[in-house]
Amino acid sequence: MAVSAPTAAPALAASSSSSARVRSAFRVEWRKLTSQLVTRVLLLLCALGPFAFAAVLKLQSSTPSDTLFGVWVHSSGFALPLVILSFAGQWGFPAIAGIVAGDILSSEDRYGTWKTVLTRSRTRADLFAGKLLAASAVAVAVVAVTAVASIVAGLVVIGDQSLVGFGGKLIPPGRSLFLVAVSWSISLLPLLAFVALAVLFSAVTRNGILGVLGPLLVALAMQLLALIGNGTWLHTLLLASAFGAWHGLFAQPAFAAGLIAGCLVSVAWVLACLAGGWAAFARRDFAGVPAARRAGWRTSARVALGALAVLAVLTVATNWGAAAVTPQRLRDSFAPTFNHLTLLQQRLLGRRVASGARLNQLTACARRGGASGGPGDDWVCNVDVLIAQSGPTPLEQTVSYDVSVQSNGCYKADSPPSFVGSQLMRVPGEGSVVNPLFTIYGCFNTL
Amino acid sequence: MSAHSSRPKDALVATGLVKQFDGKRAVDGVDLRVAAGEVHGLLGPNGAGKTTLLRMLFGLVAPDAGEIELFGRRLQPDQPTALDGTAGFVESPAFYPYLSARANLELLAELDGAGAGARIAGTLHQVGLSDRAQDRVSGYSTGMRQRLGIAASLLRAPRLLLLDEPSSGLDPAGVRDVWALVRQLTRDGAAVLLSSHQIVEVQGVCDSFTVLRRGRAVWSGTASELREHAPAVEYRLVTSDDMAALAIAREHDCVRATPGPEGGLRVQAHPEHLDPYVVALGARGVAIRGLDVAVGPLEAMFFALTGERPQPSGETAPAEPLAGGLIGDGR
C-alpha cells in the first residue's frame, strides 16, 4: 500500500436535489441488476423464447387450445403474442418480478453491503426509490423484449393474417397489431404491482429466496381464488384479474370496465405494497445481528402462517358481491359469437354468405350440476339452429357445446366433431384451415 | 472533560449514547469526542459495544438515547448531508462480489457525488490495488478487501474517518501502511476514530483512547494519561536457574514472579523495581538469558479496565477486573 498524500482539501459533498439523488441511486441499481448473470439470462430467454415457441408450434399440427387464442396460432401471427401474454400473466410476470425485484433489498443483507451503501451521501429513501425504479425498469424492459420478440416471432413464423376476435369476427392485421401492443402495455401495470409485491417480500423477509418465490406463491394463491366463488368483489381485486384486463379489447363489442378496474387495482396494490415495504425498511436497524438471531426466517414463518389465515378468509370472500358468471351473460356472449363463427366457417369453405346474414338460432346455457352460476367446467350451451328449407317447417339442428367458464368471464367452448366437424377443415386451394366452430373462445364483462 | 458541548475543532461529539437489543444494553451511556487532527482509539474486548457504537455514529442504528454531532451538526440519517465529510467502515468492509473493485468504487462514487469518481484511480493506487482493480471482488483475500474498504473510505475525502479493526487481515507491511495513512490524514487535519480489541495494535498510532467494557466507557483519556494509571509491566524472564530466580524475587517486595506458561518466568514490576532484581540475579550467579516485555503498560491497563487477562498467544480471555480504583474517567 503506497502511502502518498491523501486527497487534499476534504470538503463536504455538495448536497443535490432529491430527484438527482434518486437518479444516481437508480443508475447504481440499474448497473448492478444488469451486471448480474440472472438478469442477462432472463433477457436472453425472453428474447429467444418466443421464437423457439413459434418454431415448435410451426412444426406441430396441434395447438395450445386451452389458452385463449391458442387454436388460432397457426392461422394468425397475432395469436402468438396473445397466447404468450396469457401464459405470462399467470406465471411469467410474477416470475420476472420475483427474479428482478425479489432480491433487490435482501441481496444487500446477503452481501452485508447495507453498511457500505448507507454510509454514503444518499438517504434510505433515495436508495429505496432508486432500487424500486431500477427493478421496475428492468422488469418493464424484460417484458418489452418479450412483447417485441413475441410479435416479431408471430409475424415472421406465422404471418400477419387477420385475427379472429372473441366475438367471432375477423380483426384486420393493423388493428390486431395495435390491440396486441395495447394488451401488452396494459399488462405492465399489474407487472409493476408484482414488482412492488416482490420489494415488499424482500424488505420484510430480508430473504432472497422468499423474495423471489413470494410473488409466485401469491400468483398461485390468486389463481386458486379465481377458480372458486362467484362474487365480483374479491375477484376484481386480484392481480390475476388485472392481468386479464386486456380481454375486453378483443370482445366484440369491446368493453373497458375490466380494464379500468384492473388499472385501479394494480395501482392500489403498488401503493399498498410500497407503503408496507417502506415501513419495514425505514424503521429497521442495520445492526449486523448474528445469523443465529436474525429475524429473517422467523419473520418468514409468521408471514406464511398469516398468509394462510388470510387465504382462508379470502376463500370465503370469493362469493361476496354480485354474481360474475351467470347463464344470461354467457348466453349473451356465446350466441353472437357462435353466429359470427358459423358465418366465418361458411366463408372459409367458399360458400357465399350475404353481408349482414345471421343464423336463426336459439341459445341456452346452464350448468350441469344444477348451480345457477359461477365459474366451472360443467357449463353447457345448446344452440338450436333453424335452417330454412322447402316447406313450412324449418329444419332444427341442435349443437351442444361443453363450456369452461372462468371467474373473469372468459370461456372456452368445445363441441364434438359430430356436431361441427373436425378441428381442421379442407378448404379448396388453401389446404387445411382451423374450423372456427371447433373451439370457441369468448370473454364477457363481469362488472 | 465533558462531551456535552461541541468545540469548533471537534469532528465528532457523542453524548449519552444508549442502544438496547432484546432487553440487553449493547451501549450504555457512552460519551465520545474526537477532535480534528486526532487519532482516537476505541478499545474494548469483543462484545464491548464498539461496533454498535460505530453503527450509531454512521446512522445505521438509531440510538435509544443520546445525541451525535458530526462537525457540529446533529446526525440526522434521513438527511443526505448527514455523513458529509465522514467515511469509514464497520466490521469487515463489504462489496458486491460479482463486480470488480473498480466497478464497486464507481458505484460508491456515484452515490457520493461531489467528484468522488475522479478520485477512484488515485485511491486504488494509494491502497495498492491498481493492478487488481479489474478483478472481481469475489476473488479478493481478506486483506485486499480491507484495502478496498480503505479506498472506498478515501473516495469521500473524509475529514472524519471511522475505522473498525482496519488492520484486520493485513500483513505487517499493510498494517504499517494503514497507520502511515492514518497519520497522514490527521496531519492534514482529519479526525480518525480507530476501533480495536487489541491495544498493542493501535497504541503506536492513537493519541487518545476510550475503553469500553460491556457497553460502558470505563476510561477515556490521552495515551500518556493511560500510561500514568497503568499497573506494573509484565516481563518475560528466562534465566539459567528459574527456581533460584523465583526465590530471589520473593526477597524483593515490589517484584512479583511466577512460572511462565511457556517456560521461564513472568515478572510483574515497575521498571525502577526491576533493575535491583536483575542486579541481584547476576550477583547470585543466575544468568539472564532473556528479558522482554510480555505485557506493556498500556496493554496492562487495557486488561485491567476490560477485565481481560493476557494469553500466551497474544489473545485475551475474560478475567476478574482489577481494583475499581483504576476504573474511571481519566479525563
Given helix and strand content, the structural type of chain B is alpha/beta
Oligomer: heterodimer
Using the CA coordinates, give the radius of gyration of chain B.
23 Å
Q: What is the helix fraction of residues of chain B, given as a range? A: 25-40%
**Biggest interface found:** A-B, 48 and 68 residues
Q: What is the H/E string of chain A?
A: HHHHHHEEHHHHHHHHHEEEEHEEE
Average of the residue pLDDT scores of chain A? 86
- Amino-to-carboxy terminus distance of chain A: 70 Å
Structure summary, number of beta strands of chain A: 9
Protein structure class of chain A: alpha+beta
Summed up, the helix count of chain A is 16
Average pLDDT taken over every residue of chain B = 84
Dominant shape of chain A: elongated
Summarize the structure in words.
The complex is a heterodimer of chains A (447) and B (331). Chain A is built from 16 helices and nine strands. Chain A is of the alpha+beta class and 447 residues long. Chain A has a five-stranded antiparallel beta sheet. In chain A, a hairpin with a 4-residue loop joins β5 (395-405) and β6. Chain A is elongated and about 90 Å long. Chain A starts with 17 loop residues before the first helix and ends with a strand. The relative contact order of chain A is 0.11. Chain B is α/β, with parallel strands linked by helices. Helix content of chain B is 30%, strand content 29%. Chain B contains ten helices and 16 strands. Chain B has a six-stranded mixed beta sheet, with helices on both faces. In chain B, a hairpin with a 5-residue loop joins β15 (308-310) and β16 (316-318). The chains are: A alpha+beta (447), B alpha/beta (331). At the A-B interface, α1, α5 and α6 of A face α1, β6, α2, α3 and α4 of B.
